[in-house]
Amino acid sequence: MFWALVLFWLTIVLGLIKLGRTLSLPAGPAGHSFTVFTFVAVYSLMTLVTIYLAMGASWARGAMLILFIIGILPALPLVFAHFAAIPLAATLTCAQGLAQIVGLYLVFREPAASWFGRPIER
Questions:
Q1: Roughly how many angstroms between the first and final C-alpha of the chain, as a whole number?
Q2: d(Cα 120, Cα 117) in Å, to the nearest integer?
Q3: Among 30, 45, 53, 100, fewest CB within 10 Å belongs to which?
Q4: Chain segment 59-112, per-residue pLDDT in tens
Q5: Distance between CA atoms of 31 and 55, rounded to whole angstroms?
């Protein structure tokens, strides 16, 4: 469970690095506002779900899986295009995807799966 949480936090840190790299590039006609809004919305939700995972909330495993699926679908076509134009962002996106896959694997397999099923002590 510890390593899964490390990987999820790593994904968030890599997202911060990607945001910094993106903001250092010239902005389009609308500026960087959509990028910043999207980052804040998505990564705030990821941070919240990661915190709930650390607390043992079983539903957070499913929520993280859903976030991964929603995030990976638009990222796949973009990452291939970005390797030519923005190789650092593409590499960080691949690292994020790999960290998420391994982290999800760890929270859905034993012993983490039974850890999430334990009764909550008060």
A1: 21
A2: 9
A3: 30
A4: 999 999 999 998 888 888 888 887 887 888 888 888 999 999 999 999 988 887
A5: 38
Residue 92 resides in a domain: yes
Reported confidence tier of residue 118, pLDDT bands at 50, 70, 90: low
Q: Which residue has the higher pLDDT, 96 or 119?
A: 96
- Domain coverage including residue 54: 1-23+33-110
Does the residue 37 lie in any domain? yes
CA distance 36 to 79: 19
Cα separation of 65 and 122, whole Å? 28
- Contacts by residues 89-93 (CB-CB < 8 Å, ≥ 24 positions apart): 89/18, 89/21, 89/22, 92/14, 92/17, 92/18, 92/21, 93/18
| Within a domain: 9 | yes
In total, how many domains does the chain have?
A: 1
| Structural domain contains residue 13 | yes
